[in-house]
Design brief:
Number of helices: 2
Radius of gyration: 21 Å
Distance between the termini: 67 Å
Number of strands: 4
Order of helices and strands: EEEHEH
Largest sheet: 4 strands, antiparallel
Length: 97
């Protein structure tokens, strides 16, 4: 049996009270709880994000649910350093004139 990586995504669940945070364990993996700002970072399978966000939004103690944008962001930075260096060089040339 081979191990397969599952695509995961985080949901940020804002709550009215942190007393019910243990109930969120049945929906996914609780990674972080902010006591001051009263939110929970919950990791779930990426295929289930839409349905779980809807289910969590219906719970009485949940204010709102926000899905993480990280899967949509490109994490490849090929050529970015060269572009920034070229931009700085062109700015310094403009300042010298």
């Amino acid at each position: 049996m081979a191990f397969e990586m599952q695509a995961r995504q985080s949901l940020i669940v804002y709550t009215y009270s942190l007393k019910q945070t243990r109930q969120l364990k049945r929906y996914g993996t609780v990674m972080y709880v902010s006591k001051k700002m009263r939110y929970v970072v919950l990791y779930v399978n990426q295929a289930d994000v839409a349905s779980l966000a809807e289910q969590l939004g219906k719970l009485r103690f949940v204010k709102r649910v926000v899905a993480s944008k990280r899967p949509e962001i490109s994490e490849t930075f090929n050529g970015v350093a060269e572009e920034m260096a070229a931009d700085k060089q062109s700015e310094t040339e403009d300042d010298d004139e």
